Every structure is written in structure tokens, then in C-alpha cells.
Here is the input.
Amino acid sequence: MLTKRIIPCLDIKDGRTVKGVNFIQLRDAGDPVELAKIYSDEGADELVFLDITATVDKRKTLAELVTKIAKAINIPFTVGGGISTVEDVKVLLNAGADKISINSAAVNNPKIINEMAQEFGSQCVVVAIDTRNVDGIDFVHTHGGRKPTILQTQAWAKEVCDRGAGEILLTSMDHDGTKGGFANEITAEISSMLSIPVIASGGAGNSEHFKDVFTFGKADAALAASIFHFKEIPIPELKAYLNSEGISIRK
Here is the structure.
């Protein structure tokens, strides 16, 4: 059995870590380089860095900040935000990223998934899917959750897998920042359907939520932000709890 991963997420806006509820009402959560180092030292398995307004503001992810964070940590590091070309990917991998996350760019030009997988290998390609349930149907949203699309989430997840993505970062916009638990139903549906790992995101509020998303949600990894940023659940404590519940987790 593969070990499950715990992944803190740094949502970056104007060089600072921020956190909101349902993708809005952002508040400051600290210096990203300092937070990254703390999480690495505490035993986080990986780290995700998302420049959440890069696509909206039509600018590129801050490669300089990526380099600073990469130097401060010794765990795998995924970077996303404003990436639309293979050249953008190259710049960020050279800056120190291990994987690249794309969302809006993949929806706008699905071939970029194939191109990235061919150029850098599937293990580098993470497709982020921001999903919201509208009248009982799950739809993909882009541009930091601001723009609804007509793509149904499950069909899109299958397509990105077929195109060569190595992993999916599935964020439930309905659950994001609410601390009411992950979206286990759709996470389980997509995890069961695909051959690639699924990272669950959105809704973590306590240790039991992580247990639930790994068991009922069948997730390979769980991502959270505010509960780590505001020290509500220390990573070592969370891992000890999951181990005690019989979930295979990296020490």
C-alpha cells in the first residue's frame, strides 16, 4: 500500500501567503519562505505553491520567490499560477520547482498537457481542477475559481489523465476554507476512475477529515492551508493520529 501524503499549500498574492473562504475573503497568513521552511522541518511530505492571481492579473508566477523557497526546503515542491507555455514550465523547473501545476491553461489549451508530459515527463505535470457543484452537476472553474466552464469535472479529469498528467489536484470550491471536511464523494469517484494519484483539497478542519478523505475519499494525498498556517493542527500531531488510525503515512 502506497503511503498517503500530507501537503501544505501556500496561496500567494503579492508575495505574501493568503487564505480565504470559498476562494474569496483573503487574509494574510505570513511569509511564504518562512512557512515553507517550517513545514519542511515539521515533516510535510510535499509543498504546493500557487500564485492565485497570476492568471487573473495576466502575469507570470514569481520565479524569484520559487528559487528562495526551493533553497529553504528539502521536500518535493509543486508550483502553479499563470503558466501557459512550455517555456514558462522550463523557467520554473530551473528555478527549483519539482512539479508544475496548471489549471486555466489546460482548459484553454488541453494540448499543453501532452506537450508538458512529452517534454518533461508525466511526473512533473499536475493538473489542478477547481470544481463546484451546480444543480447536482460538478463543473470545472478557471481563473482562480472566478470563471465557470461547461466542462463536467469527471469527464475533464479523465481527459487530463489520458493526455499524460501525472497527478490531479482536485479542489472543491464548495468546501474550500469551510473546515467542514473534504468533498469525499467526488474525490472517491475520480480516484476510483483514474490510474493516477488524486490530491484532495478544500475543507480540512480537523484530523478526522484527513482520515475520512484517505478512507472514504480514496485520496492519495490531502492538501490544506489555513489549519497549518494558523497552527490549528501541527503536522507531526496529524501524522501521529493517522498512524494510530492504521493509515499508512510517511513518518
